[in-house]
Structures are given as structure tokens and as C-alpha cells.
Amino acid sequence: MTIAPFIFRLLLAGTALAIAAGAAAQEAAPAPQDTQAAAPPPVEDKPPPYEQRLIRLAEILGSVHYLRNLCLGKPEDSWRRSMQELIDKESADEPKRRERMTAAFNRGYRTFASVYTVCTEPATLAEERYRAEGATLASEIVARFGN
């Protein structure tokens, strides 16, 4: 097990705890008194303070997913699955956040797809650096915002 997936799992665990705490707090809220009034349309909550870091992490995961598949020579889906887990846990009921995270992953993927069509030494180096940046970013998110 490398450090990046381990820290990423810590991030997912911290995210799950934060979501569960938020859901428990919402369940404890009193019911509205006026049942005759029409319910307002659903509004997405204010994004969490770590949103920009999460978007960057999504870009990194897209980049690493592309570069790993390019350089390994065989399909590897673990980075895309990790991203899907993150999206599912972070933005289950927030379609706009889901779209932003998906777009960031795709942007990271397409950025490298437009530059590298074969595995080269610079592609391998970029993949290593992005994995290191992702691990650092994930550990910072967990350390600063995890519960």
C-alpha cells in the first residue's frame, strides 16, 4: 500500500464523519410550523471551506488516472474509482458540487491527454509529482478539516 491511497482513505473517512455529523444536526432541527406554505426549491448549501482544495485534488486524480494508464500499458481504474467514491461521499445531494468535482477530474485527465500520447520520462515524472501533491493535499485536508 502506498501512502497516497492510505491518506486518501483517511480523507474519505473524515469526509464521511463530517457528512454524518451534518446529517445528525439537520435531523435534530425542529419541523417548520406552517405546513400550508409551499416548500422553497432546494438550495445547495454553502460549499465547505476546503472546497477549492477538493477541486484541486479532483484535478490531480484525473491527471494521475490518465498518466498511470498511459505509462502502465494496462488499464488501471483505482484512481477513477477513488474519485467516484469521493464524489459520492462529498456531493451526494448537491448536483452542482458533483458537476464541479467531475469537471475538475475531467480537466486533469484531458490536460495530460492533450500533451502526452505515449509514456515518456517527463510523463512518468509528472505522474510521480502529482501523486505526491495529491498525498500532501489529502493529508492537509484531513489534518485541517477532518473530525
UniProtKB/TrEMBL annotation:
Database matches in InterPro entries: CHP02301
Disordered, as annotated region: 30-49
Matching Pfam families: DUF2385 (PF09539)
N-terminal signal peptide: 1-25
Keywords of this entry: Signal
Keyword ATP-binding attributed: no
Record-given protein name: TIGR02301 family protein
UniProt organism field: Sinorhizobium glycinis
